[in-house]
Design a protein that fits this description.
Blueprint: H1 2-7, E1 21-24, H2 31-37, E2 43-45, H3 53-56, E3 61-64, H4 72-75, E4 76-81, E5 84-90, H5 99-111, E6 115-119, H6 123-130, E7 133-135, E8 146-152, H7 154-160, E9 164-169, E10 177-180, E11 183-192, E12 195-207, E13 210-215, H8 224-234, H9 236-247, E14 252-260, E15 268-274, E16 277-284, E17 290-295, E18 301-307, E19 311-318, E20 322-330, E21 338-345, H10 353-376
Parallel strand pairs: 1-2, 1-3, 3-6, 6-13
Antiparallel strand pairs: 4-5, 7-10, 8-9, 8-11, 11-12, 12-13, 14-21, 15-20, 16-19, 16-21, 17-18, 17-20
């Protein structure tokens, strides 16, 4: 018996799942620290590999933090004796990635459904790919240190449950766009060498099936502002799957939240918009169940859902346009497991009703053309008939 057990092959150990999140090595934005604190596994990408399309194929979310271009002392070998420089040479492993090839890789990744984060000085990579920014007097580095009373809009406002937030810029020359394509989610007024200016501080840009988040502000390491940015990109696949539940019914999506419970937290709260008539809240909690309570504007309970289903939805019929507060509670002791909420407005009658309507109209059009052709262009006969 013992010999038979010894001869038996060892049970196969399943390989560890590959990371789907990557961070380009940077200097000024502590994305790696935040991801590690949030227990989100990631790989590190070197600057020299940014023009290689194979680099991008393994990931669904990539962070380009401020300062991805290596500093000069990381690029060169310096040999000196006492106070005299003997030689200066480029390091053997340093390579400047092709700018056009890098821009093409970024575009292909975004339009193929990837999620991308850019902050601060990494704007130039995004600018080369899509040219989404306009700058005051054509110069990006105009921001001065100081306090900014920023305005929060759309999903970041729903996530933080506030419309204003004080931001503190710690250095001169930060990137200050005058305007940007996409959905501006944070804006503010700030000082520059040419007086007070205003413009977007964070923006969401949708390209193809992907989403790009750019933020000028990255000074804080842990805040709801930073938390929204990190989870929006790292949790993009989960958020997409949840949004697809609303798209199945052709509803209008009114809010998207992706988050996780951290150590010491017994709930999280957000707000979501409600329209007149039927509204639906979709949720996905793939790793751990949770309880969802929905309150109206006066904090009166509307719906309470406590279920061990990892995916589901519930409807809220509302008499007027407004908003609701959503409190989410963990049902287990597990933490740092991502979940997603998506709110949508509109009736749920037939799945993919618009698509079915288009198909029906297309079939009807083909049938009508066939009938008209038969009536007006049918075969005609001519000639004599003998007796």
């Amino acid at each position: 018996m013992a010999a038979a057990l010894a001869a038996a092959p060892a049970a196969a150990v399943p390989p560890a799942a590959a990371n789907t999140v990557a961070v380009v090595k940077g200097r000024y934005d502590d994305v790696e620290l935040v991801l590690s604190t949030y227990k989100i596994p990631f790989d590190t990408i070197e600057y020299r590999d940014l023009d290689n399309e194979e680099t991008y194929k393994k990931y669904r979310s990539i962070f380009f933090p401020c300062g991805v271009v290596p500093s000069m002392n990381e690029r060169i070998n310096l040999v000196a004796q006492r106070n005299r420089i003997q030689s200066v040479s480029l390091k053997d492993d340093f390579r400047e990635p092709g700018k056009d090839a890098t821009a093409r890789c970024i575009r292909d990744f975004a339009e193929g459904g990837g999620a991308l984060y850019f902050s601060g000085y990494a704007f130039d990579l995004l600018q080369r790919a899509y040219s989404p920014f306009l700058f005051h007097d054509g110069f990006p580095h105009v921001g001065l240190p100081g306090r900014i009373e920023s305005k929060l809009m759309h999903d970041i406002s729903r996530f933080c449950v506030k419309t204003k937030m004080a931001l503190y810029m710690e250095h001169s020359g930060w990137i200050a766009p005058r305007a940007a394509m996409g959905e501006v989610i944070v804006s503010g007024k700030y000082d520059t060498p040419r007086g007070e200016k205003s413009g977007p501080l964070s923006v969401l840009i949708r390209k193809g099936d992907g989403e790009i988040l750019y933020t000028s502000y990255h000074s804080t390491v842990f805040s709801d502002f930073r938390r929204f940015n990190i989870y929006r990109i790292a949790g993009s696949p989960l958020l997409k799957r949840t949004a697809a539940m609303a798209e199945r019914w052709d509803q209008t999506i009114t809010g998207k939240i992706v988050d996780a419970f951290h150590s010491g937290e017994n709930h999280r709260m957000y707000y979501l918009n409600l329209g007149r008539g039927n509204n639906t809240v979709y949720y996905q909690t793939p790793d751990a169940p949770m309880q969802i309570d929905v309150f109206d504007e006066k904090m009166s309970l509307i719906v309470s859902r406590d279920s061990f289903d990892r995916s589901g939805s519930f409807d809220i019929v509302y008499g007027d346009s407004g908003y609701c507060f959503v409190r989410v509670y963990p049902s287990t002791r597990q933490r740092f497991r991502m979940f997603a909420l998506v709110s949508a407005h509109g009736p749920r009658i037939i799945p993919h009703a618009n698509l079915l309507l288009k198909i029906g109209l297309g079939v009807a059009a083909v049938f009508a053309i066939a009938v008209l052709k038969r009536l007006f262009f049918g075969r005609r006969y001519s000639g004599r008939f003998g007796m």
